[in-house]
Amino acid sequence: MTQTRRILVIGGGIGGLTAAIAMRRQGIEVDLIERDPDWSVYGVGIIQQSNVIRAMAELDLLDEYLDAGCGFDQVEIYIPTGQQVATVPSPQLVPGKPANVGIGRRALQKVLADRAIGSGTHIRLGITASDLLDDGSGVDVCFSDGGTARYDAVIAADGIYSVHRKQLFPDAPAPEFTGQSVWRYNFPRPANLTGLCVFNGPIGIGLVPMSRELMYMFVTTPEPDNRWYDKADLAAAMRDKLAGVPAPQIRALAAAITDNDGVVYRPLETFFLEGPWHKGRIALLGDAVHSTTPHLGQGAGMAIEDAIVLAEELAAHDELAAAFEAYRARRFDRCRYIVQSSRAICDGQIGRGPPVDNHAATVGMFEVVAKAI
Question: Measuring CA to CA, which of 98, 132, 304, 325 is 20 to 30 A from 74?
Fold first, then answer.
């Protein structure tokens, strides 16, 4: 790499922060802007599999990461009545380390933000890029605070509703609502919860350890009208969604859902950009190009892998276009598999497609993500 020395990252989420960390390790000067002045993250958890543990080891972040979360080595599959029918061991890609991690999103954000700042990334909050002018030899950026700067390249990691994707590719399709939504809620973690527990059925349910003290529940429900719920009604609405679930362990937990502020509700949308992932000196990363439903727990994992691959390709190529093309080539099939396979589970749960066996889908996902990126 001889021509790319200063890069702007737009978006301070998981993908943007990991990109900053990975590029700093390659000696690239990085500025990062995040539009949220409070840099807020909602307080439930996230599942990350062995490919993310491997990625954290590559970034020399593994110890901090594992200390912030809860490692586990298997996925337990239950039928709707609450009986366990299978245990799926997960492949360990880092010897002696867990195969999976449950971690609070705020804890993960802190691990990544601390390393990004410590590595020399210049981070500014409450700022957006109001204009990007790519003249072929660099990108002039106008910021919302009136400032300007020039960069060799810009990486937009600004999410499923990416403003900069719309600017680069105005004819790209919009994100698609799936007909399903996800609910999340934190609970005290019982001692016997030692891995991810997945309950099959038309309402998908999972219990995920994320620290010694906490676990979270996720619930996927049909929402054909893309309904939104008033915040004051969220706890009661989540309890209602679980009222008909036969599993006694889930009914017991449902009764404890009482805090409206503790319920995180989100309609599920998907997006995959089939065409180029860059235009000139501006490239897209993470949910801006491949936003998935959470059924395989790989959304953040794909963004983290994107960041590592992008930094590697920037280091390996003198020409920026070649680096961006190589980045997309390495990521395209893997990310499309995750988006499509996760959507298939979603469609099966709401009757828009054949039911998908979670055991088989989990095994297949582990086989794919175990491969080198």
Answer: 304
Same domain flag for 219 and 258 = yes
Domain boundary (217, 247, 268) is at: 268
Q: Which amino acid is at 79?
A: I
What total number of domains does the chain contain? Answer: 2
User: At 7, is the secondary structure helix, strand, or coil?
Assistant: strand
Question: In terms of domains, do 353 and 223 share one?
Answer: no
pLDDT at 158: 98
pLDDT digits (tens, 9 = 90+) for 261-270: 999 999 999 9
How many helices (H) and strands (E) are present in the chain, helices listed first? 10, 20
Global pTM?
A: 0.95
Rounded to the nearest 5 degrees, what angle is found at the Cα of 84, between the Cα atoms of 353 and 198?
50
Q: Tens digit of pLDDT for each residue in 223-249? A: 999 989 999 999 999 999 999 999 999
Using CA atoms, how far apart are residues 362 and 352, in angstroms rounded to an integer? 20
The residue assigned the tokens 């709707």 is 80
- Kindly write down the DSSP assignment for every residue of 153-214, as one continuous string: EEEE---TT-HHHHHH-TTSPPPEEEEEEEEEEEEEPPTT--SEEEE-SSSEEEEEE-SSSE
Q: Is the pLDDT of residue 4 over 90?
A: no
